[in-house]
Amino acid sequence: MSVEQPAYATGVSLQDARELIVAVAAEHRLTTETVALETALHRVLAADIHAPFDVPGFANSAMDGFALRGADLPQSGERALQLIGQIFAGGDNVLSVGEGECVRITTGAPIPYGADTVVIKENVRVDGDRVWINAGEKPGGNTRPAGEDYRAGDLAFRTGTLLTAAQLGTLASFGCDRITVTRRIRAVLLTTGDELAAAGMPLGFGQIHNSNRFSLGGLLQTFGVDLLRHQHLRDDPTLLRAALQQAASDADIVLSSGGVSAGEADYLPGLLAEIGRIHLWKVRIKPGMPFLFGSIGQALIFSLPGNPVSGIATFLSLVRPALDTLLGINKSARKTWRARLQSAIQKRHSRTEFLRATLICDENGTLWAAPLAKQGSGMLRGVTEADVLLIVPEDMHDLAQGSVVEFLPLPGLI
User: Fold this and answer.
1) CATH assignment at residue 301
2) For a tag site, which of 100, 284, 302, 314 has the least CB within 10 Å?
3) CA-to-CA distance for 383 and 376, rounded, in angstroms?
């Protein structure tokens, strides 16, 4: 008698899981909106941005000093120039410099007509309206040409750029006060388990406090997701079904923890197959193998294992790529991080493993990763003390000291 195969991927590699998740998420790309520039930090550009004009729009001084003609600089000794005025950054006076003349100028002020050089004030001697210049100054020195930063029409940022503080400053230099971005992801967080008690509540026999509500909720908010609500549920299939359906109707993604393995109280795989669609279940990783990914209507469902470290590891390795895809973040912005192992690693299984580790940069600039001694999937202390999750591929078992390994930065490292 043949065993019926599930209509979804199961027991897949980390790479295959990521590719499937990203492919499904790409079909659920979010719409766009226009927001004020001051609210656009960590938002994702929804259109290419070109410089509308030269930045800066005029040649200006890079230092406080005196603007003059480079041809008037002495080849030897010193030379006196006639001081004919001054010009400040933002001032509206228009000056011209002729042969043997100079103008006092401040940083950022436009270079006067006829001038092409600025000599800093520390290198001159002023005597009334005479300014003495010594030999050794370079023609064209201490000036910034028009368009030095951007020329009109330059591509400044591509669609999918995650906006940082520096990029907001650049957009402001273009005169932008509003910008088109991908709208924020809306999420509902569901935590499950009769054994969990809310923080601040007394613990009954066999209970632990619900840390996932804060670690997973914090990760969602760290990556710019609007967390609509958190709901904790007992291990009751009727309650879970209703909560999943309501969350899927309210949010773009539903993130759950617990109830996702194959135990008697692990109802989520069966419920998701009943009211939605399973895309994959179980990934060859440690910790986090029971990870479940599916959809209900237009909402993506990510069901993470209940162990705290498993939840964090699967969020960073499998959920975050989906968030980037939903937002349209440019793939080229995703960096690969690597370090050398400070000590050897031996792995006896054939799954990709995430090891908690700290980073150490030696005096030669080499980055070393030191795996922590305690690696249990229920031990939050390891994640708290770690800087990164080392990624040990499934086909690697013995890694010598000094081996180069990839890692995922934990939030707070960068």
Assistant:
1) 3.40.980.10
2) 100
3) 10
Phi–psi pair at 172, nearest 5 degrees: -65, -35
Looking at per-residue pLDDT, the higher value among 33 and 334 belongs to 33
Half-sphere exposure in the Cβ direction for 275 (13 Å, CA): 21
Domain that holds residue 167: 34-52+155-182
| Residue 126 three-state SS | strand
Instruction: Tokens 């002023």: give the residue.
Output: 126
User: Between the CA atoms of 336, 302, 6 and 3, what dihedral angle is there, to the nearest 10 degrees?
Assistant: 100
Q: Which of 312, 281, 310, 304 is nearest to 294 (CA)?
A: 281
List CB contacts of 19: < 8 A, sequence separation 6 or more.
none
Amino acid identity of 10?
A: T
Q: 173-232: per-residue pLDDT in tens?
A: 999 999 999 999 999 999 999 999 999 999 999 999 999 999 999 999 999 999 999 999
What string of DSSP letters covers 285-345? EES-TT-EEEEETTEEEEEE-SSHHHHHHHIIIIIHHHHHHHHT--GGG---EEEEESS-E
Residue 213 lies in a domain: yes
Residues 293 and 193 in one domain: yes
pLDDT tens-digit series, residues 2-47: 556 678 999 999 999 999 999 999 999 999 999 999 999 999 999 9
How many Cβ atoms from other residues are within 10 Å of residue 136's Cβ?
A: 11
